[in-house]
Amino acid sequence: MSSTIKVYSVADLISSRKRTRKEIVDDFVRINREVWGPPFPEKYVWTPEKVEVQIRTCPHILYCAYIGNEMAGTLSGIYKNESEILKCTSWDAISGGGTLSTHDADGDSYFGVDLSVLPKFQTLGVPDAIMRKGFWEKIVIPNKKGAFLGARVPRYSEHSDMDIEEYVFGWSQGGRTRDPEIRLYQEAGFQRVRIVKDYIEDPESLDYGVLMFWKNRFYLNLKEFFGLKQSGSSA
After folding, report:
1. Phi, psi at residue 215, to the nearest 5°?
2. How far, in Å, CA of 134 to CA of 110, rounded?
3. Do the beta carbons of residue 94 and residue 85 sit within 8 Å?
4. Domain count of the chain?
5. Which of 98, 126, 130, 194 lies at a 20 to 30 A Cα distance from 70?
6. Does 185 lie in the same domain as 168?
7. What is the pLDDT of residues 181-221, one digit of tens each?
8. For residues 149 and 212, is the Cβ–Cβ distance under 8 A?
9. What is the separation of C-alpha 216 from the centre of its chain, rounded to a whole number of angstroms?
10. Measured CA distances, 113 to 109, 119, 129, 149 (Å)
11. Residues 20 and 124 in one domain
12. What is the pLDDT of residues 95-126, one digit of tens each?
């Protein structure tokens, strides 16, 4: 198996005719369903209809990674204003039920709705490659404040006698939380922002999510030193 990873935005992939629109839709659905199948409720999983709406809404900020001729992972997100993201009540509400219909092309920040990588490719650097390219092209270059996401806390069900605030924020080792999934995002530069109750139907997390933020450290420098105007995507 070749481990060379190639990452494309969906808009570029379609315009280059490297893949047909149907092939892209089918692959997004296939990967998402393999990664987020049962016990997650069906309403959270991609369908061809949802992915079609995603592509119509913001193809420039949808990304996919290939190893050889096989799509190995996908990254889906939207632009929203930071003030709106901070009011997030659930994954369903902020993502438009997974359709990305809540995308605001002029939003000052990015919200990561989904990152799905096939298990057989997860140790080959696909998550890092797809996030690195997507964040550079759709956060750093267009001068967005940074990236938000709602993280699961899958070990919380094992510590349900503890308050969720204490579990996420109360204990740290080198500034890191108890939960291994939150720690993974911290290692990628994300900071904990707040707890979101009933973020997603997830028994392991007792339905909690943690809003996290990756700061674009180039944001002010680009604006001040290069005179770039903050602008929305053409998506």
Report:
1. -80, 130
2. 11
3. yes
4. 2
5. 98
6. yes
7. 898 899 889 999 999 999 999 999 999 999 999 999 988 77
8. yes
9. 15
10. 13, 19, 17, 7
11. yes
12. 999 999 999 999 999 999 999 999 999 999 99
